[in-house]
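Researcher: If convenient, please comment on what follows.
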Amino acid sequence: MIETPDGVLLATSHAACGEVLRDAGQWLIPRPLPERDVPPRRSMAYGVQELYRMMVSLNAPAHATQRQPAVRLMPRRALSEFEPVIRHLAGEHVDSFEAEIGLRGRGDFAATVASSVAGKALCGFLGLPHSDAAALMEPSRAALALQEISPGRAALNEAGEAIAFLLEYLRRRLAEPSPAPRFIDALARAETEGDLPEGYAARVSVMLLVGGTSISANHLSSAVLALIEHPQQAQIVRQERTLADSMVDELLRYAPPIHVLQRQAARDGVLCGHPVRAGQLVRLMVAAASRDPALTDNPERLDLTRPRPRHLIFGLGSHYCLGAALARMESAILLPRLLARMPQLTLAGEVARRLGSAHRGIDRLPLTAGPPEPSSGVALTAGIPAPGAEALR
C-alpha cells in the first residue's frame, strides 16, 4: 500500500483491490467532480448531473434499487440467444476487413472491426439500429473522461455534452414504437412499473453504451495486438472456433482496457494493515493487480493455457460490470474467426494508442495479411475527441 503526498492511497496488490471492491459499505463511489465545481455551461452541467443519477455513480441503497431490475432483465439465457447476432457481426466485419486488406494492402482493425462490432453488438442488444452505432461511438468515448482520475476542463466539457447527447438520443428512440421486443422497452416498463426514478431506462442504456462500445472496442484491439506480438498464443486461438472464458480472461488480464478504479472511505478503518481515514481516496490499480505474482505464476507472460485468472478488470461485488458477459462473448467469437481467416496478420504501420489515467485504448491498429513492414512502429496519442453529435441530429 502506498500513500501519495496528497493523501491518496494506491492499492496495487490483488488482495487490496479485491478487499475494497467487495466492501461497498466501507468503500464508496466518489464523484468525479464536486457539484460546486460543475461549470455553469448548461449542456455540460446537465450531462454531469445526469451521470450522478446513473447506477455507476450510486452507492447503497440507491445503487441496489437501480441495479436489480437491470440484472433481472439480462439473464444468461438472453445473452445466449443473442450469440447468433455476434457471430453474424463477426463474420461480416472480418469479411470487410479481409476485403479492405486485399484492396489497399492494409486495414485498420480498430475502425473496421473492433469499433464496428462492439458498437453494433451493443446497439443490437439494446434494440437500437445498427446504422446508428458509428455515430454513437465518439460520444461514448468522450463520456469516459468522467471516469478518469484528473480529466481536464475541456475533456469534462466534452464528456458532459456527450452524455447529454446520448440521453437525448435514447429518449427519442424510447418514444418510437417498435414492431419487435427491445431491451430498452423492457427497461422502460421496469421504470414505469417499479419504484424507479424517471429517466431510468435512458440512463441505464447510456451507461451500457459507454461501457459496451468504447471499452469493448479497446479490449478487442488490445487483444489482437497482444496476439500478433505473441504468435505462439495466436496459434492456440487459431485452433479454437470459440475461445474459452479462461482464454478471454487471460487476454483481459494481460492487455486490460481499464487500469484504475477509484473509491472513497466511508469511515475510519484499516486496509491491508494500513490505517484509513474517513473520506480518504484509494486508487485501485487493477491493471497492476492483474500482474500480481500472488494472483498467477509468471504474470508478465501471456499464456492462454493457464487456469482462468481472477482479474478485476470488470470490478467485483455489487458494482461488477453489467456487460461483462457480452464483452467476453464478442472476444470469444471474433478473435478465432479473425485469426483463422488471416493467420499471418502483422503490423502495417504505427499503432495510435489512447492513454488515459484510468482507461487505455487503441484508436488505430493498421494490419496487413503478409509479413511485417520494416517501418512498423508505435505512436502514442492521447486526448478525448469531440462527441461528433451532428451525425444523428
Remarks:
- The longest strand covers residues 350-355.
- The chain has one domain: 2-392.
